[in-house]
Amino acid sequence: MPWAALFGMSAAFSIALDAMGGDHGVEVTVPAAVGVMRHFDDVRLILVGDASILEAKLEEVAGGIPDRIGIRHATQVVEMHDPPALALRMKRDSSMRVAINLVKSGEADAIVSAGNTGALMAISRFVLKTLAGIDRPAIITSIPSVYGHTHMLDLGANVDCKARHLFQFAAMGSVLASAVDELPSPKVGLLNVGQEAIKGNEQVKEANQLLRPAP
Questions:
Q1: Are residues 51 and 74 located together in one domain of the fold?
Q2: Which residue, 103, 128, 153, sits at the end of a domain?
Q3: Contact of 21 with 96, CB cutoff 8 Å
Q4: DSSP assignment, residue 144?
């Protein structure tokens, strides 16, 4: 399914890419961006980072700047070892922060970064806020299952959670599964030490009680 159609959009889906982030930076992100252009004709990418470095790498990989790739200059980089608080306060012109700002301004529909996860969560929450009724962001991925795949969250954005946070994660995962997998009523489960309601810690038991009457 085309990306734009997946998200109910008529125009090209625009993604801001933190091109300097990750363990290998532009050596990975720029070739990947060019690969995306070859596979999806309804996606536009905005590569964020040092413009001179990005232009040189695009020249090397693609012979120039492809039509649906733009560049937004940023003077700083969030390193993998940077504490989230430092990245938030001291690196306001980092490729990560500038890319997130593009979502806030409406120039991009989403932001992708392989960089410092803690900084990404902290800056995103500060700049973009959260939806009403959602206290914390969550990391999600798909894992293989007997019937195809299962979306699992949270996978590291939060160390300690209350029952209401687990409930909110369940709601977010359910909405994502509905949109991406086209499931009108996804099955939601709590990962626990056993399937009986009496098992698990207090947070899981309370979350179970919150989930049972949920529509």
A1: yes
A2: 128
A3: yes
A4: E
Q: Could you tell me the pTM of the whole model?
A: 0.85
Side chain identity at 68, as an amino acid letter?
R
Domain containing 156: what range? 141-211
Angular region, 3: left φ>0, alpha ψ -120 to 50, beta rest = alpha
Residue 145 and residue 49 share a domain: no
Closest CA to 175 of 118, 214, 127, 119: 214
Residues 59-116: tens digit of each pLDDT: 999 998 888 999 999 999 999 999 999 999 999 999 999 999 999 999 999 999 999 9
Rounded Cα–Cα distance for residues 14 and 5 (Å): 13
Q: Are residues 19 and 113 in the same domain?
A: yes
Q: 119 and 154 share a domain?
A: no
Tell me how many domains the chain contains. 2
Query: Contact 11/4 with Cβ under 8 angstroms?
Result: yes
According to DSSP, the β-strands at 110-112 and 69-73 are unpaired
End position of a domain, from candidates 93, 128, 163: 128
3-state SS, 118-137, equals HHHHHHHHHHHCCCCCCCCC
Q: Which residues of the chain have pLDDT under 50?
A: 1, 3-10
Q: Which 3 state secondary structure label does DSSP give 155?
A: coil
pLDDT at 11: 54
**Which of 1, 42, 9, 6 is closest to 179 using CA atoms?**
6
